[in-house]
Design brief:
mainly alpha, Na+/H+ antiporter like fold
């Protein structure tokens, strides 16, 4: 009987707390969203499973010496995993639509307004006594508005590691919900005639332009804003490997094997921060609310900038592509194309929307650099 009691006392069922049980249910919910609903499965499945492992009493895998603890220390705390992911994003991204229509940079820039509006919102809630966020925490929360998961993880790992789990879950959840969140905002802010606007065909972009762009991007932006150099540098390097045509093996590895391996450990490491004591708090609810507000403001800002540019531009611009200025590549561009097709079945906006979409990736990296510069 003593042996049976000892086994029972050592079991997870005996040691589990109410908070851990709640977190296990939340992590199962993330797995459901990733597997059944196919919402950002590459990250939600790994984050959800990492959360399960970290909330099993006595497992110790997320505690000092455990595998998830070590991967977090090596990959997230140092910023290595998000930077490698950004290199893979660069290798997977075609900057041709942006180079063919450089004006769309303004749409990507406008969509980053959600980041700074959320920063001010978090500080305002703190001032009113509703929440208690420091400047660094508010800056990390604001990055959710860029709808860029790796950037959000990179910034929160540097500025507010205690909020990493909530920020990562919010960022990837809202990225997955782009097809649900964005269309109502896009329809609300545009008229039927604006959604029907047909845009002229993009020009061909030369190979020389494609090769020079990542180099010039790094030099021009990073020299002005060194804190953005790590993210932009890895993005530019990945894209240069894609476009230069002489390192196809490296580009292929970066686009496939390397980014897949790092995604596994990135998700598990983030999941290790979904512990009950860190996640189940009023601050987490505030982060989730601020995140959706940030995303909505970013979408609205892009659409409104598109309306303004359409008024002053010689060539017509469909304001819908402004919503693609958030960094959810390529989902936001696909959503803009879908809403445009609903208004005009013959109007293909996908390639036009990819311009502001990739501009949004650049914009979120620059915004991250600004946040880090002014809060550290």
């Amino acid at each position: 009987m003593e042996l049976i009691l000892e086994i029972w006392r050592g079991s997870g069922l005996y040691q589990i707390t109410g908070g851990q049980a709640a977190m296990l249910l939340i992590c199962l919910g993330l797995l459901y969203l990733g597997i059944v609903r196919k919402f950002e499965p590459l990250l939600l499945v790994t984050i959800g499973f990492g959360g399960l492992l970290s909330n099993i009493p006595g497992a110790g895998i997320a505690e000092p010496g455990g595998l998830l603890y070590l991967t977090y220390e090596v990959g997230i705390k140092t910023g290595a995993f998000p930077l490698i992911i950004f290199m893979g994003v660069g290798a997977l991204t075609d900057f041709g639509p942006l180079l063919a229509n450089p004006r769309t940079l303004f749409l990507g820039a406008a969509a980053q307004f959600g980041i700074f509006a959320t920063l001010l919102g978090a500080l305002g809630m703190t001032e009113l006594g509703v929440m208690d966020f420091t400047l660094k925490e508010a800056a990390a929360i604001g990055i959710i508005g860029g709808a860029d998961g790796p950037t959000a993880i990179y910034v929160s790992g540097m500025l507010a590691p205690q909020l990493l789990g909530a920020i990562a879950v919010a960022a990837y959840s809202y990225m997955a919900l782009v097809p649900i969140i964005q269309p109502p905002i896009m329809r609300l802010l545009t008229t039927e005639d604006e959604r029907k606007i047909h845009m002229v065909q993009l020009r061909d972009v030369s190979k020389t332009e494609r090769i020079l762009f990542p180099i010039l991007l790094l030099l021009l932006v990073a020299l002005l804003l060194p804190t953005a150099a790590p993210l932009l540098g890895m993005l530019a390097f990945g894209n240069l490997m894609r476009e230069c045509g002489v390192v196809d093996r490296l580009s292929d590895t970066t686009q496939n094997a390397l980014i897949n391996i790092v995604t596994i450990f990135l998700g598990l490491s983030v999941g290790s921060k979904l512990s009950a004591d860190q996640f189940l708090s009023v601050e987490t609810l505030g982060i989730l609310l601020l995140g959706v507000v940030a995303f909505a403001i970013g979408t609205a800002s892009g659409v409104l900038m598109g309306k303004v540019m359409n008024k002053v531009s010689h060539n017509p611009i469909n304001p819908l592509i402004g919503a693609a200025g958030v960094s959810a590549v390529p989902m936001a561009a696909r959503v803009a194309n879908k809403v445009g097709l609903e208004a005009n079945p013959h109007n293909i906006l996908l390639m036009h929307a990819m311009g502001p979409n990739v501009a949004g990736v650049i914009g979120s990296a620059i915004a991250a650099g600004i946040m880090i510069m002014f809060t550290t």
